[in-house]
Protein: HTH lacI-type domain-containing protein
Amino acid sequence: MATIKDIAKQAQVSPATVSRVLNYDKTLSVSDETKQRIFEVAEELNYTKHQKKTLKKMPEILLIQWYNQQEELEDLYYLSIRMGIERKAKMLGVQLSVCQLSDFPIDNMTADGIIALGKFSKREMAIIQRIALPKLFVDFDSMSYQEHSLVVDFEFGVIQALDYLVANEHYSIGILSGQEKTKDNQEIIADSRLQAFHRWQSQQEHAIDVVELVADFTVDGGYQVIKEWLKQTASKPSALFITSDAMAIGTLKALEEANISVPMDMSIVGFNDISVAKYLSPALTTIQVPTEWMGEQSVEELLALMTQEKTITKKTMFAPKLIIRESVRTLH
Structure:
């Protein structure tokens, strides 16, 4: 840390003057030019002193996952992020260990930094924050906990999807959103895409007829909810916006069983662009979240945090984009 003497020497004033300026002593009679010089020197020395430290050994990263292996297979979103993390760590020669929060080695920690992937309750955050290591939360906005995070701008993705449907003359739109809980079952996690949908709807000039459905973020979750809904409703929207591709896959299966053709009878837009989306029949129009890049970027950002002695809490947010394939048609 830069001392008052360091600042005084470079600013060519006395240590007493530096101390009084930095403490905003109103009784001190010095020129604004001198004050500015002192503040600039203080900023410069602080930046230089704290900008970087050298990693003395090959770093080790601990990846905390909230999805287990079976859950990853049911929704490839987190699998893809994890693979990006593993690939980048291997490329950079970083040692990576993986655990569930239930196996968190709080009393036997050897890692130099932590990537926490998924959603966490207040109780779980308290456990993770007991470890005084650089941390990066991926797909979880941890700003309220004063922790760094890397997240998706879901609202922008929702707007792209719905604007595309309206551009294709769809004014009767159903939304299938997801529901989930933290692993300790302490908190229900709201699907932020449903909230974004409501905000988008309130801003439309045309009246939008809306149907709202909720399912688990899995193929079977989407399938079961849509199958039951089709039995109970005679009036169907012309399009469905589905907040995960896993649920969209289940939806396509339920629609096929009910002899509802996509996109001729109903258009579908998914979210995430998981690896299988382009191979579905029809190929799924969806919002692409670059999940593998998220994983790769999280390693780079954590390594940067590990070389900084002092950081300002940062949230990195990136924009998804619409991928147009075959599951939406123009009505008129």
Summary: The chain has eleven helices and 13 strands.
